[in-house]
Structures are given as structure tokens and as C-alpha cells.
Amino acid sequence: MALTLLCGALSSCEDADGRLRRFEFHALGTLIEVSLWDVDEDTALVAERALIADFTRAQRDWQPWGDGALGELNRAIRARREYRADAELKALIAAAQPAYRSSGGLFDPAIGGLVELWGFHREAPASAPPPAQAINAWLARRPVYADLKFDNGLVSSGNPAVWLDFGAFAKGYAIDRAIERLRRLGIRNAIVNAGGDLRAIGARGNRPWRIGIRQPRGAGVMASIEIAGDESLVTSGDYERFFVHDGVRYHHILDPRTGYPAPAYMSVTVAHQSAAVADAAATALFVAGPSAWRPVAAAMGITQVMLVGADGRIEMTDAMAARIQRLSAPQDIAASEAR
Ligand code: ADP
Ligand code: MG
After folding, report:
1. Is the CA virtual torsion 62, 66, 68, 73 positive or negative?
2. What's the rounded Cα separation, in Å, for the pair 172 and 300?
3. Half-sphere exposure of 252 (CA within 13 A, CB side)
4. Which residues neighbour ligand 2 (ion) by CB within 5 Å?
5. Ligand 1 atom with minimal separation from the 286 CA
6. Interacting residues of 24 by C-beta distance below 8 A, sequence separation 6+
7. Which of 40, 144, 270, 315 is the most exposed place for a label (fewest CB within 10 A)?
8. Sheet of strand 325-326, all strands in order from the earlier edge strand to the far edge
């Protein structure tokens, strides 16, 4: 009875020997699952309340089309007004800047207007692509993150077509913040998993954390990887949001140079210490495609990558190939260097 209650909404579940505690909740459009190792029940409860509060605030404040701070900023930019951003929003905007620059703009949070044209800002998918004319009009206005200006705490944009959307970054950023929060509570061994993107710190007793990487098509796991110390594993996939029109699949990872979904991959997985950087990089490498992902990875400081091509072929950096355990046919692995 007590155990059943312990697994309720605002409490922690524990495993048989009581050393693993888990709790989960919904935020940022996904399931957030937190696992803690060797943490007492009171600390676990404090952690759970803190993370729920943090993620709930993030969900409200970072919604590009919502009533929160980011929605306000976007509407101000469209109206050519300056906006006084609070410290949290300013920190988010600043945190995404290095990845925008090092990716050569392939990761660009100013892409919200294009996301909206494709209808990926809504829960329900669109039924057809936008007219080419509308995409060309967006391309002609060329909104980019570098259009943002900062002046004494005021944010504005030289280009009113900028509409900020941190969909490719905010989950990773929130995971990093959650890990910092857990550390401040004295927690040393934990995983924060937001819909398959995760960061792990410490270990599970004397074992590393073992993580599964899902198949981009169908159910199940295609590979597994062990993580210990402090590392994030983030995947960008064409299966998260998409629709099919006339037999063609249109997904939510968009190439800001063409205005269309990036065609080369089904999924890109990146391992890196920071979940925010891994999140931005997975998106950027997905967009970069086969001829450019290596230099973009090098510029972003990323060495561990696995890419599943639209044709199902798998490519990896040597550093990734050295540690990943494939669970399906090995003949399609083409190991290569990141540099
Ligand atoms: P996933 O949803 O699989 O985690 P991403 O991290 O790549 O994938 O995030 C995709 C989201 O990021 C899209 O829904 C959109 O809001 C936004 N987005 C799409 N293309 C880009 C891009 N080139 N740069 C920045 N953000 C993007
Ligand atoms: Mg991403």
C-alpha cells in the first residue's frame, strides 16, 4: 500500500533494493523521466518538486506562440518594438548563440516563421506543404539569429520576420539546468531524460548507466551505449513531427537555406557533455547532410555522432563506433572520422 502511494504523482518510485528512485511528469511537450541513485526519500521529493516547478516555468516562458515571455518578445519583434527580457530569457537567448554561429546558421532559432508556415507549431500536423511562394517569401526576408540586438537589457531585431523558436535547443538546455539543480541538492548520480534526450551524471552504483537508442522507424532499440561521469545523448529525428502528402514525408527539421525539411537523415544522435550543445548540434548535423556534417561537427566541438540516413545506412564517427553496441545488422556501419 505504502509502495503504491510512493509511486503517485508527487513522489518517487524505488527499485527492489531501494537505491534507484524514479519520478516522471509531462513538460515541454514530452515525458520527463528522472532517475536518482542512492538518494534519500526526502531529497528525492525536494528534487521532484524543484524540477516540476522549473520545467513548468520553462514551458510557459519559452513557448514561441504562447502568452509567456518568448511569445511576448516575438510579438514585439514583429511590431518592431524593443522588449525588456527577464534574466532567464536573456540567458536562454545568449546560450543558443555559440551554436548558431559555429553551425554556420544551420541551427537557427530565428526559424519560427518557417516552422509556422509548415504548421509544425501546432499539435495537429498539417495536411499539405505550404505553397512554394510562401516559402520563397520567407527566404527573401531572410530572418536570422544575428538580427537580434541587445541594448541595455532591451532586445530587438533589425528584421521583423525574426520569430524565435527554441524547439531544437530548449529541451537540452532545460536538461542541463535540471542537472545543475540536482547537483545543488547534493545529488551526484542521476539521469534526466526528456523524451529520449538525456544527460547522466555519476553512475548506477558500480555500473555505468546503460542507454538505448531507438529505431527511427518502428518500435524498439537499434543500439545501446554506456554512459558514466557526465554526458548527454541527444537525438534529432524525422519521426517526432511529420505528415505525409502525396506519398512524401515532410518532417519538422527544416533547412533554413531551402525552407524545406532536410532530406538526408532519419535521425542524428550526438553524445556530448552539454545537452544544450548536443541538442543544437543534432539539429545542425541533420540539416548539414552527408557532404557537410563532418566540418560542422568539428566547428561545434562534437566528436561523437551517429547518423541514420534516409536510406537506412548508418554512419558514425570513430569515437562513437568505439563505444556503441549495435543491436541490429552490422554490415551497414560506415565508421568515419569527425574531422
Ligand atoms: P527533435 O524534435 O527530434 O528533438 P530537434 O531538436 O531537431 O528535433 O528540434 C526540432 C524543432 O526545432 C522543430 O520542431 C522546430 O521547432 C525547430 N527547428 C527546425 N529546424 C530548425 C533549424 N534548422 N534550426 C533551429 N531550430 C529548428
Ligand atoms: Mg535539437
Report:
1. positive
2. 15
3. 21
4. 168, 236, 279, 282-283
5. 7
6. 31, 32, 33, 34
7. 40
8. 209-214, 221-227, 325-326
pLDDT digit of tens for each residue in the chain (339 aa)? 222 223 333 334 455 566 899 999 999 999 999 999 999 999 999 999 999 999 999 999 999 999 999 999 999 999 999 999 999 999 999 999 999 999 999 999 999 999 999 999 998 999 999 999 999 999 999 999 999 999 988 999 999 999 999 999 999 999 999 999 999 999 999 999 999 899 999 998 888 899 999 899 888 899 999 997 999 999 999 998 999 999 999 999 999 999 999 999 999 999 999 999 999 999 999 999 999 999 999 999 999 999 999 999 999 999 999 999 987 654 343 333 222
| Pocket-testing residue among 108, 242, 253, 279, ligand 1, by greatest number of atoms within 8 A of Cβ | 253
The residue whose CA is least distant from atom 8 of ligand 1 is 236
Which residue type sits at 24? E
Phi, psi for residue 315 in degrees, rounded to 5: -125, 145
d(CA 253, CA 148): 22
> Which ligand has an atom closest to residue 194 CA?
1
Task: Calculate the CA 108 to chain-centre distance.
Answer: 13
All three cell numbers of 275: 545537452
